Amino acid sequence: MTPNMERSASPGAPAYTGFQTSALVALRMLVGWHFLYEGIAKITNPYWTSAGYLAEAKWFLKGLALDVAASPGAVTVVDYVNEYGLVLIGLGLLVGALTRAATIAGVVLLALYYVVAPPFVGYTYTMPAEGSYVVVNKVLIEAVALLVVLAFPASRQFSLDALFAKRAASLAPQRAEA
Question: What end-to-end distance do the CA atoms of the chain give, in Å?
């Protein structure tokens, strides 16, 4: 073990410095908070729907997105999956429960948002962008942030996953004796 590395808090967890662990946990929790907030904001707004976003689709999922936007039943399903998916992913990331699954689901959801409405030159949308993007926008940045969380897991340091792993490790010797 190198001098700047600390022992990991949980068996099987990578050894990061305290600063590295804190940064990774903060990143996971902040992205989780954003997902949770966006999901709750959509659920509590009776006028929110994904129909407008889908109707303005560009790029290679345009046909599918327009078909969904034209179908009230399909929009209802997409809205429900989007709202509650955001909440569940957000909770998973925020408290560190099923972190790997929540992280992968978050990356997939953000990738769908990106390919439906990419910030490419020449594409215009009714909703104004928060700045002048060319290829890279906040959706892509948040997706890459989740890839960092996936690549450098710190979920066993400060999370419900850590509690479950510790509990499972403590029960393992008891099961072996039985």
Answer: 36
